[in-house]
Amino acid sequence: MERRRSFPDVLAGGIFVLIGGAFVVGSLGYELGTPLRMGPGAFPLLVGAIVAALGLAIVVKGLIVGEAISFGPIPWRAVAVIVVAVLFFGFTVRGLGFVPTSAVTALLTTLASSRVRLVTALAVTAGLTVASTLIFVVGLQLRIPLLGPWLGF
């Protein structure tokens, strides 16, 4: 009985191991603290270790259990729209403010799928904008203006 290796699983797991390992290495430059009084390096260390462990499990699964998976066509439109949305957010959040930038970013990423209707995209945009504003601006108290200086407010 021949074992079939899953190259996508091995590749994805390897990427997770690299990213997790980078976080672990980066966290060692900060104070780790104790379990009761964690320092700034403790959380990235734990998250990095968990991500690396999950990546290792995916690599092992791909090597042992493996399955034949064929890649379908790459959705280039979705890839391009999501990249543009992330760049838009990064370049405009301070100028436009959090609410309009979040709304446009959410709308763009929702419309990346060709199967989403405009009404659904607008509803998702409204929900994500309200949720992200409540989480980041109200809950985490990020100091980002809701409406930026580019809008004249």
What report would you give on this structure?
By secondary structure, this protein is an all-alpha fold. It folds into two domains: about 5-65; about 75-150, no CATH class. The protein has five helices and no strands. The model has no long low-confidence stretch (mean pLDDT about 90).
Q: Can you summarize the main beta sheet? A: none
Strand coverage percent: under 5%
Distance between the termini: 69 Å
Note the run of SSEs as H and E: HHHHH
Please indicate the count of domains: 2
Structural class: mainly alpha
What portion of residues is helical? Answer: 55-70%
On the 0-100 scale, what is the average pLDDT? Answer: 89
Rounded to an integer in angstroms, the radius of gyration calculated over CA atoms is 21 Å
Uncertain segments are none
Number of distinct beta strands = 0
Note the total helix count. 5
Backbone shape: flat
Secondary structure layout:
Layout lengths: L6 H21 L14 H23 L11 H21 L1 H13 L7 H22 L14
Helix pairs in contact: 1-2, 3-4, 4-5
